[in-house]
Amino acid sequence: MKMIGLDVGSKTIGVAVSDAFGWTAQGLTTIRWNEEDIDSADEELGAIIREHEVNKAVIGLPKNMNGTIGERGKASELYAKHVEKVHQIPAVLWDERLTTIAAERVLLEADVSRKKRKKVIDKMAAVMILQGYLDQSK
């Protein structure tokens, strides 16, 4: 079963996909979207889901450090429901606390320039979200 990992922000959605066995996550792309228009990424995301024959979405849930769900978390919950409705695949929410920080650290250690980090950080966070879910599911 192939899965897609999504790091949903207010302006971009980082996208990662798993291999067919559900062992590894690979970064794919970053979709630009407008959070105010929840449908704005549907066409591009739908094409990726079809192309990669995705059966499940894993969406990052940005909880507060104390475990509560704030505004960004509620936006992710809303988007998960939207993905299920529009793309007809189940969506699960995965605690993504610190994934963007971890992704930034990995890119810094790899000596990636600030300009390039900005372009790939969401995609890298999506990889970490999906890989975390895959590792827990084994």
TrEMBL record:
The keyword Amino-acid biosynthesis does not apply. One of its GO terms (molecular function) is hydrolase activity, acting on ester bonds. One of its GO terms (biological process) is rRNA 5'-end processing. The keyword Zinc does not apply. Keywords: Cytoplasm, Hydrolase, Nuclease, Ribosome biogenesis. Its EC number is 3.1.-.-. Residues 1-103 form the YqgF/RNase H-like domain. It comes from the Bacteria. Its main location: cytoplasm. SMART domains: YqgFc. CDD domains: YqgF. One of its GO terms (cellular component) is cytosol. It is found in: Cytoplasm. InterPro entries: RNaseH-like_sf, YqgF, YqgF/RNaseH-like_dom, YqgF/RNaseH-like_dom_sf. Could be a nuclease involved in processing of the 5'-end of pre-16S rRNA. Belongs to the YqgF HJR family. This is Putative pre-16S rRNA nuclease.
